[in-house]
Amino acid sequence: MTRLSGITPSGRVQLGNYLGAIRHWAKGSGDDLYFVSDLHAMTTAYNPARLRSLTTEQLAVLIAAGIPADSVFVQSDLTRELGALTWLLECTCTYGEAGRMIQFKEKAGAKSGKGRTGARLSLLTYPVLMAADILLQGATEVPVGADQVQHVELARALARRFNATYGEVFPIPRAVLPPVAARVRDLSDPSRKMSKSTRDSVGVIFVLDEPDLIRRKIRRAVTDGATETISAEPGNPARAGVTNLVEILAACTASDPDGAVAGIGSYRQLKETVAEAVIETLRPVREGATTLLADPAELGRVRKTGAGRAAERGEHRLSAALRLAGAGQ
Ligand code: ATP
Ligand code: MG
């Protein structure tokens, strides 16, 4: 069993990414694979220099979080392999299948401003690249949120069809839905979840934020101002801000929400306690990532090792797929 998970460098890594995903990845088995999906960040307008720096930062964070370096790679380091496999899979996928992807329908209209015809073609074909990510590595389990299940189903259909048409090459992957964990919410607008691509970042704690900045952001977090009742009430929108702070504290101190707030008497004290817990939770990751980022030669070496391992792992599947499909010598 090989599990594969990716994170897109659409913004700087935030606390929710760490508490909800990355720290669990660090506890996975040695067969698991994690990658920074920078090619996926190119389906809408982006800045190349910023993409490069976000990619490097994410890689450093994944390694500093404790994921074994040879289980981590950057997607674009396998552009040649993935490009080749994407072509074979595009030749296996129908236009109708790609067009039925709900994310395409949602994003194509919204982002281009001109409807679907103005969207990048890659926004339509991106699920096929995602299928290539999965099938190249022979991944069998793909942990995803509900919004990505349809894309994994497409990868599954393409693997089956390719195998049936040309010969058995790809293990059949399946989507696994991780247990529903509490979503970290935006500190300034707790009606939405914390996200790395949010434009206005006052309510977003980034994993590499300095302690003082974390204190300031948490001090300004929205509460309800009225009752000073220190407890989590999931499902009550009027108390979403306080619930979020309590849940962040519980996640950082590995305790249940009631236990985490025992003895806390005011919102001010709650915020101070949450800030220190977040700072301590992120400290080793921030320090490790900062050290790596200050040593580009070492980070480059680590990156190359991961890419080499990933390319090697996929090589026989790619060459078998090309041969069976009638391409190459
Ligand atoms: P984007 O704004 O680009 O969608 P994001 O911050 O939502 O960025 P994703 O790349 O969509 O991050 O997700 C990466 C991982 O982080 C996924 O496993 C996702 O479930 C998890 N994650 C993202 N945001 C949160 C959050 N607020 N709380 C808990 N987990 C989160
Ligand atoms: Mg997201």
From TrEMBL:
An example GO biological process term is:
tryptophanyl-tRNA aminoacylation
Recorded family membership = Belongs to the class-I aminoacyl-tRNA synthetase family.
Does the keyword section mention Protein biosynthesis?
yes
For this protein, the record's Pfam families field holds:
tRNA-synt_1b
Claim: Phosphoprotein is one of the keywords in the record: no
- UniProt keywords, alphabetically: Aminoacyl-tRNA synthetase, ATP-binding, Ligase, Nucleotide-binding, Protein biosynthesis
Q: What is this protein called?
A: Tryptophan--tRNA ligase
> EC number(s) per UniProt?
6.1.1.2
Domain of life from the UniProt record: Bacteria
InterPro entries cross-referenced by the UniProt entry: aa-tRNA-synth_Ic, Rossmann-like_a/b/a_fold, Trp-tRNA-ligase, Trp-tRNA_synthetase
Which cellular component terms (GO) are annotated to the entry? cytosol
Record GO terms (molecular function): ATP binding; tryptophan-tRNA ligase activity
